[in-house]
């Protein structure tokens, strides 16, 4: 029998604190919460507008929720676990015990892990329920979120546009309230791009703060894992849970001493007052195609200024596009890192190397060239070393800039033009700065472009805040204050509340 939430309680735009308050008042159960999200997926993901954000559901989700309800009923005086009963959407290149992890690729069918990825285990230990695995740009190797297994995910704000990528399934699903919290991965832009395109919050943590074990890799110098949520507070709660040392991912040894006591405690709506934020003007476009984004950004920046932030113009091309393009190393690492992952895949997986993946002739056409390039570049040690050296030079250059100007953060639009229509490749995204340096960045909703035929609300635009290594606590405080002042989050009209 279908369980419904008490009238007046809706999963639309639900938050962790909101659902827990309803649970503690006896107005909501974990099972009811899960069922209502499943109902929305049924109504809008494959049917209705056909968002196509979900690749597969967790068949045990309702049973897990019922178990949590029984535990809470047995000890009603006990406080709820941090994420008790909260439904998660997990990008399908992150392992979840007993659920296929295909990265959207037909050739990875049968990849059913025996254990959770570190971050998934931490979230489940906090009481969360994995509701579904989400579509992504196949093998996380593109920005439009299309795959052989999931097809093309649509942007719920404009069904003719992409949802960004590669974590676009998670982004579209969280925007449409198919889950309460989302987890994505970010090799270049892949958490922050869907956040920008779907009016969400997306956090790329400092390299070493969050484990990547259990991840289908693209290139581990740049790959990381982070939250995609509807609010900054919920992103901070997720980071509180997933940040930590994992012996299976040695890079987290560097981050262990930098973990904040809490990223979610002490958020202050007045945190922008006195903050010094550098505007990377080179990261703003100056052509007619950039007008929509620039108009939203100008209004958002005026709001930040009104909250007491000092906005410091940085007009010179401190970080030229050509330098950024020459710092990325994922294509040089993809073969070795993916081969190592596939070597340990379950016996049912038929591919054991990147060459096997290409030879399968089953990958989506949008990634064929990327995979071929990765094979060709795998042995180019000289160019690879030079790019790593450029990354280090870029880190030093950015730190020197921030020190010289006394900056708390840098700010710019995540994407200089609106997220592209389906059939086009993403253009002029700025997220590469964080991926090339390994420094943290957070995207928040800045506003919407003017309404148009296919986008009655307009198209979302995201503001990116970039900081020094392990400055997540500061970035989150600034992002929270900006979020509260801007009030730019709106649910998409294409996926309204169910009657």
UniProtKB/TrEMBL annotation:
Supply the InterPro entries for this chain. Answer: Amidase_dom, AS_sf
Going by the record, the broad EC class of this enzyme is ligase
Q: Does the keyword Ligase apply?
A: yes
List GO molecular-function terms, semicolon-separated: glutaminyl-tRNA synthase (glutamine-hydrolyzing) activity; transferase activity
Pfam families attached to this UniProt entry:
Amidase
Q: Which UniProt keywords apply?
A: Ligase, Transferase
UniProt lists the gene as gatA_1
E.C. number, please? 6.3.5.7
Does the entry feature the keyword Transferase, yes or no?
A: yes
**UniProt-listed SUPFAM superfamilies:** Amidase signature (AS) enzymes
Organism (species): Paraburkholderia caffeinitolerans
Domain Amidase, by residue range, is 33-475
- The name this protein goes by in its record: Glutamyl-tRNA(Gln) amidotransferase subunit A
């Amino acid at each position: 029998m279908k369980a419904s939430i008490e009238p007046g309680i809706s999963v639309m735009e639900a938050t962790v604190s909101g659902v827990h308050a309803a649970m503690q008042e006896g107005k909501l159960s974990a099972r009811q919460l899960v069922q209502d999200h499943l109902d929305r997926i049924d109504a809008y993901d494959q049917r209705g507008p056909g968002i196509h954000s979900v690749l597969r559901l967790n068949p045990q989700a309702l049973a897990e929720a019922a178990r949590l309800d029984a535990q809470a009923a047995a000890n009603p005086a006990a406080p709820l676990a941090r994420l008790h009963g909260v439904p998660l959407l997990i990008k399908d290149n992150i392992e979840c015990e007993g659920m296929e992890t295909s990265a959207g690729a037909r050739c990875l069918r049968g990849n059913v892990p025996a254990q959770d990825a570190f971050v998934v285990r931490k979230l489940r230990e906090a009481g969360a329920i994995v509701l579904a695995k989400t579509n992504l740009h196949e093998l996380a190797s593109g920005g439009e979120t299309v795959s052989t297994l999931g097809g093309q995910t649509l942007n719920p704000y404009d069904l003719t546009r992409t949802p960004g990528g590669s974590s676009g399934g998670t982004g579209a699903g969280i925007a449409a309230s198919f889950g309460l919290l989302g987890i994505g991965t970010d090799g270049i832009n892949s958490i922050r791009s869907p956040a920008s395109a779907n009016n969400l919050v997306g956090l790329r943590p400092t390299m070493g703060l969050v484990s990547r074990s259990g991840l289908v890799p693209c290139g581990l110098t740049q790959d990381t894992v982070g939250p995609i949520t509807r609010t900054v507070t919920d992103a901070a709660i997720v980071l509180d849970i997933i940040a930590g040392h994992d012996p299976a991912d040695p890079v987290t040894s560097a981050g262990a001493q930098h973990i904040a006591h809490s990223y979610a405690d002490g958020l202050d709506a007045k945190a922008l007052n006195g903050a010094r934020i550098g505007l990377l003007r080179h990261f703003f476009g100056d052509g007619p195609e950039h007008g929509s984004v620039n108009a939203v950004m100008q209004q958002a920046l005026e709001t930040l200024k009104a909250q007491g932030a000092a906005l410091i113009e940085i007009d010179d091309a401190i970080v030229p596009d050509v330098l950024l393009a020459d710092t990325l190393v994922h294509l040089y690492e993809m073969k070795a890192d993916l081969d190592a992952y596939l070597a340990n895949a379950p016996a049912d997986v038929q591919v054991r190397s990147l060459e096997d993946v290409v030879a399968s002739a089953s990958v989506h056409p949008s990634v064929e060239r990327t995979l071929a390039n990765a094979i060709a570049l795998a042995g180019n040690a000289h160019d690879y070393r030079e790019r790593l050296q450029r990354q280090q030079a870029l880190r030093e250059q950015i730190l020197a800039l921030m020190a010289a100007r006394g900056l708390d953060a840098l700010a710019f639009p995540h994407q200089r033009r609106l997220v592209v229509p389906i059939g086009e490749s993403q253009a002029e995204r700025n997220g590469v700065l964080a991926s090339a340096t390994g420094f943290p960045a957070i995207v928040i909703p800045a506003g919407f472009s003017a309404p148009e035929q296919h986008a009655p609300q307009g198209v979302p635009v995201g503001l990116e805040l970039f900081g020094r290594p392990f400055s997540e606590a500061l970035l989150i405080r600034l992002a929270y204050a900006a979020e509260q002042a801007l009030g730019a989050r709106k649910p998409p009209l294409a996926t309204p509340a169910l009657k």
